[in-house]
Amino acid sequence: MRKSLILTFGSLFALLAGSLPAPAQVQAEVQAFQQSAGDRSILYRGKRGARYTILANGHPYWAQPGFERGDIVFEGNPYYDVPINIDALAQRALVQLQDSPFSVELTPENAPAFTIGDGHFVGIGPGGALPEGFYEVFGDGPVHVYKHVYKLLNPNTQNVNGDPIGYYDPDYRNDVTRHFAIRKVYYFRDAEGNFSRFKGRSALIRQFQDRKRIRQDVKAIQRRQPDLSFDDFCKAVLHTAAQ
């Protein structure tokens, strides 16, 4: 079984990098072992994840409050088909206990790679190339975009950078409203592994030498999809750059 875990560990990283998934037979062996261990698995022996009772607009999680199934590497071992979410306020990955509303939190250092749905994520601990936290990784070629999402609880009545106003709470700081303000930061990782922060669509295209061709290709994509989100724009740029 230990040999299978090592093989699966490498295969999961290949999956996270956009390559072929782990062999079905090996993955089935690991899943069977995990199911028999249940909540006694070492994955669930950490600190209980925060359960927020704050009255505020929005939520503290990466994209949505609910958990999605994914695969995760924790302390060198892979775990498959686990309910996962990200607490963007505390910068902790959350794995939900079986048949329970509770979860266990994992630090970025202890959860270096995982998937949530179709998204690929990495955890970067203290002293890493980027600020500590979790990052969604776009791109299957030699270059990537790393997206970092973090949230703050703002006692603010104003709409800041598109964030909606908060929940009205008469018992909190003399009628001040609160909301979870979301902040998104993007980094470009070149083929040598160097990171540079960028803002905006033009700034991403400027990272490439063949920017003229990329700009033309992406414009064609935008004509077909005029409501292309920034994340999808990044993916389109990386895809056309790899061709």
Question: Can I get a quick summary?
Answer:
With about 240 residues, this protein is of the alpha+beta class. Helix content is about 25%, strand content about 30%. The chain folds into two domains: about 1-200, no CATH class; about 200-243, no CATH class.
Architecture blueprint of SSEs:
Elements: H1 2-16, H2 24-37, E1 68-74, E2 77-87, E3 92-96, E4 103-106, E5 113-116, E6 119-124, E7 133-138, E8 144-154, E9 179-189, E10 195-198, H3 201-205, H4 211-224, H5 230-242
Antiparallel strand pairs: 1-2, 1-5, 2-3, 3-4, 5-6, 6-7, 7-8, 8-9, 9-10
Can you characterise this structure?
The protein is α+β, with helices and mostly antiparallel strands and 243 residues long. The protein folds into two domains: 2-198, no CATH class; 200-243, no CATH class. It is built from five helices and ten strands, in the order ααββββββββββααα. A ten-stranded antiparallel sheet has the order 4-3-2-1-5-6-7-8-9-10. The longest helix has 15 residues, at 2-16. The radius of gyration is 20 Å and the shape is globular.
